[in-house]
Design a protein that fits this description.
16 helices, two-stranded parallel ribbon, six-stranded mixed beta sheet
């Protein structure tokens, strides 16, 4: 499996130099790694301020309540807010040095916090207290090239290929398998794309092509061996012929093969939930709404297909918990105690039950695979991320360079720009952002 590079979501956050330039990261835990017990080094009573972006819709209240019951000496102060409100407010809090002791955000943002000295380096804590072999590799998805680890996964959200069983059966097309290739997917999608009423317009599409990064263009450029950035995350690679090939194949699903509705058509309709498309890429958390909104829909998933280059790549989004580097030493230890509980069998089971994301504890994943809720083939997610999970070519300026690239990527998907020309333009804009953020 490829080492994770650091992940993300889609909120654009700008940091001012005044807010962050004076911050410094503490690389050593407040308690010596030789200490036999963390809790014994926490004062009899300590306050811990926890920030919850997205409120309990994203973080299971069972985890918070379970921790409080287990550690009554750690008094919790919960700060919850809708995601957008929280991510805006936290920048001000950091500048005023009154941020929560622990909170979570997108991985790209966490990486930026690490370079600015806002996030505590958790590598010494992990080395001291965890057996990393008990977890999947995603545990260390916030590890930087110099060995520092700025976050602990709040959960992982890999992709899989979701398919409508009824549409396949009605057209006598065999169901997808975990051994499918991208070409297999395209070939089946062509067979499943139908004008069912004879009016000359497509009624059922074989595949729904997304314009977003995780379900859209990243899996396609990775399928041809391309990438957005080089391995060092400092050079744009959009003009690489392999990346251009991936962008071309991505756009061809709409413009040439016509197996997908256009980006504009998708604006006001969920084609898969409406049973108007046979397949699409689904992030793990998406199964919650799918089961809620369409409980009778007959569907399942398989692993993201093997790419044209013979390799599988599973785009994976990971939000990260961080410990504020300027928190008091006793608060840092309390925060780490919370993270150790978060990684325990009990809390990882609560996380698994929420459906918001996959746990990273191997025992919790095994239990999840045996559960009876849809999808039946949960190993498409669990084994997919274990085999080929990778993040979205992120670095500290991920939000900025992605914002610069998105309008041009949309033009490529809409047929307004040829992939070769669009890739050249993206290359220049993204490299400019990278150079400005060295």
């Amino acid at each position: 499996m490829k080492m994770f590079k650091l992940v993300s979501a889609s909120v654009l956050i700008a940091f001012s130099a005044a807010a962050c330039s004076s911050e410094t990261t503490t690389d050593t835990p407040a308690v010596s790694p030789s200490s036999s017990s963390v809790t014994s080094n926490i004062p009899k009573e300590v306050n811990l301020k926890i920030g919850l972006p997205g409120s309990y819709d994203i973080t299971s209240k069972k985890i918070i309540d379970g921790f409080q019951a287990k550690y009554p000496n750690i008094k919790l102060q919960i700060e919850e807010a809708p995601w957008a409100d929280f991510t805006t407010k936290i920048v001000t809090n950091i500048a005023g040095n009154n941020a929560p002791d622990i909170w979570f955000q997108e991985n790209a943002v966490i990486l930026g916090y690490g370079t600015r000295g806002v996030a505590e380096n958790l590598e010494p804590y992990i080395k001291r207290d965890l057996k990393t072999e008990d977890y999947i590799e995603s545990l260390l998805s916030a590890k930087t090239p110099d060995g520092k680890i700025y976050g602990i996964p709040h959960g992982v959200n890999p992709n899989a290929l979701v398919y409508n069983k009824k549409i396949f059966q009605q057209n006598n097309v065999p169901f997808p398998t975990d051994n499918w290739t991208f070409q297999d997917m395209i070939d089946a999608a062509k067979k499943l794309t139908k004008d069912t009423d004879g009016d000359g317009k497509t009624d059922i599409y074989g595949f729904q092509t997304a314009s977003s990064i995780a379900q859209g263009w990243i899996p396609w450029i990775k399928s041809t061996g391309g990438s957005a950035l080089d391995a060092g995350m400092t050079k744009a690679t959009f003009s690489d012929p392999k990346t251009v090939e991936g962008l071309t194949r991505w756009a061809d699903t709409i413009l040439k093969d016509k197996i997908s509705p256009t980006r504009e058509m998708q604006t006001n309709q969920n084609y898969f939930q409406s049973e108007k498309t046979a397949m699409t890429f689904l992030q793990y958390s998406g199964q919650v709404n799918l089961n809620k909104n369409k409980p009778d829909l007959d569907w399942d998933v398989v692993k993201v297909p093997i790419g044209f280059d013979g390799k599988r790549f599973v785009p994976t989004v990971v939000n990260q918990w961080l410990i504020y580097s300027k928190a008091k030493p006793e608060a840092k230890e309390a925060a780490w105690t919370f993270l150790k509980y978060y990684l325990s069998d009990e809390a990882q089971t609560f996380l698994s039950e929420s459906g918001a994301s996959l746990p990273v504890k191997k025992t919790a994943l095994v239990a999840l695979e045996k559960s009876s809720s849809k999808p039946a083939n949960k190993q498409a997610f669990t084994k997919g991320v274990e085999e080929a999970g990778g993040t979205l070519d992120e670095n500290p300026s991920w939000n900025q360079w992605r914002a610069a690239a998105t309008p041009i990527l949309n033009d490529i998907l809409d047929g307004k720009k040829a992939p070769t020309d669009g890739a050249k333009e993206i290359q220049q804009k993204v490299q400019s952002v990278l150079d400005e953020n060295k």
